Amino acid sequence: MSAITFRGLTKTYGRSLAVNNFSAEVRTGRVTGFLGPNGAGKSTALRCLVALAKPSAGKTRILGKRYQQLENPLTRVGVVLDSRGFHPGLTGYQNLRVLATVAAIPASRVEEVLAQVELSEARDKRVKGYSLGMKQRLSLAAAILGDPEILILDEPANGLDPAGIAWLRGFISAQAQAGKSVLVSSHQLAELQHVVDDVIIINHGTLVAAGSLEEISEGGTLEEAFLRLTGGGLS
Ligand SMILES: Nc1ncnc2c1ncn2[C@@H]1O[C@H](COP(=O)(O)OP(=O)(O)OP(=O)(O)O)[C@@H](O)[C@H]1O
Ligand SMILES: [Mg+2]
């Protein structure tokens, strides 16, 4: 069974087609890069996948089910989307504790994930005082809180410094080594080609290419393949 499936997914906003009859599979135990120019429809497709947006047509499945059908979803799928709502007045630790309590996850796990994203020192600082990169690390911590088998990461490198980006690479590789499936969108193609097994490219809401990194790159770099397949410019 695929970890994630998109089948004819279509999402319209007014008269604009954000996602247009998009179909793709994310294989179990692989890291899949989700690429596309600005406005291509990546975030919209991911929001449909985790029920933050309602598809206009088509369907999405995680582990063969709709996101809403997953029991205790935090333990099945971890999500980092650009608009994650943490409570700014609570500390990083408190924010994660709230999530853990709701999902019946022990408090010790909160300490564990804070250490994993290297936020232990900032755990008692209010989130409104966090930098962009710190918030991004907290989002990643929240995503792995329930030790889910699937991770959906929308531009997780956003705001991370070079050390953070190197750390993220190790983090994603470790997830894959532990047998997890990762779907990660990013514009950092040089970075991404070190961690992905498979690639899905979307442009103007439509699937452009999908395959293994080797198939897509055809002996060149991922960036060259991306520019060739998308024509370079804005979606
Ligand atoms: N809530 C919304 N209301 C109206 N239009 C939207 C909304 N969300 C997205 N869109 C439009 O849908 C299209 C796809 O946007 P989306 O954010 O999915 O692209 P993206 O691939 O994630 O781009 P980026 O790389 O810049 O993050 C764009 O034309 C965008 O303007
Ligand atoms: Mg986006």
Can you describe this structure?
This protein has 235 residues and is α/β, with parallel strands linked by helices. It has one domain: P-loop containing nucleotide triphosphate hydrolases (Rossmann fold). It is 32% helix and 25% strand. It contains 8 helices and 9 strands. The protein has a 6-stranded mixed beta sheet, sandwiched between helices. The protein has a 3-stranded antiparallel beta sheet with strand order 2-1-4, with helices on one face. Helix 5 links the parallel strand 6 (150-154) and strand 7 (181-185). Helix 2 (92-102) crosses helix 3 (107-116) and helix 3 packs across helix 4. The longest helix is centred in the last third of the chain and has 16 residues, at 162-177. The two termini are 32 Å apart. The model has no long low-confidence stretch (mean pLDDT 94). It binds adenosine-5'-triphosphate and magnesium ion. Magnesium ion binds at residues 42-43, 154.
In short:
With 235 residues, the protein is an alpha/beta fold.
List the helices and strands and how they pair.
Blueprint: E1 4-13, E2 16-26, E3 31-35, H1 42-49, E4 57-62, E5 77-80, H2 92-102, H3 107-116, H4 132-144, E6 150-154, H5 162-177, E7 181-185, H6 189-192, E8 198-203, E9 206-212, H7 213-217, H8 222-230
Parallel strand pairs: 3-7, 3-8, 5-6, 6-7
Antiparallel strand pairs: 1-2, 1-4, 8-9
This protein binds adenosine-5'-triphosphate and magnesium ion.
